Amino acid sequence: MTSTSSQGRRVELILEQLDQLPTLSSIAVQVLERTLADDSRADEVIQLISSDPSLASKVIRLSQCTDRIRSSTITTIERAVKHVGFEAVRSAVLSVEVFDLFENRFTIVNPDVERTNGSVFDREAFWQHSLAVAVLAESLAHIPELKREIHPSEAFLAGLLHDLGTLTLYALLPRSMDQVCRLAEANGISLNDASRRIIGITTQTVGKRLAERWNLPRILTDVIWLHGQPMTSLPNLSHRKMIGLITLADSVARTRFIVPAGHGPNINLTPWSPDELGVSEDVLDRAIASLPDKVGERARHLGLERRHDSDMLLHAINRANQSLGRINHALRQRAHSSARKSEILEAITQFHQGTGIAPTVCGTLERIARSAHHCFSGLCFGLLHQSGCNEAWQFWSCDDAGAINDIHSLGDNLTLSLPDQINEDEELAIHLLPVLSALERQLKEKQRHCPPRLMPVRTAAGIRTIVVLGSEALPTSERPLAEALSRSWSAALNAAEQQEETASLGEELADANRQLIDAQNSLTRAKAMAAIGEIIAGAAHEMNNPLAIISGRSQQLLRTVEDEQQQEVARQVVEQSHRLGEMISTLQSFVEPMEAKRRSTNMRELAMRITGQFKPTQRRNFNISTVFGDSLDAVHLDPSLVAMALTEVVRNAVEAKGSQHIELRIQTDPEHDRLRIQVRDDGPGLSNRALVHAFDPFFSEKAAGRQPGLGLSRARQAVEAHEGRITLENAPGGGAVVTLWINHCQLNGQTSRDAA
Question: Is residue 337 part of a domain?
Answer without folding.
Answer: no
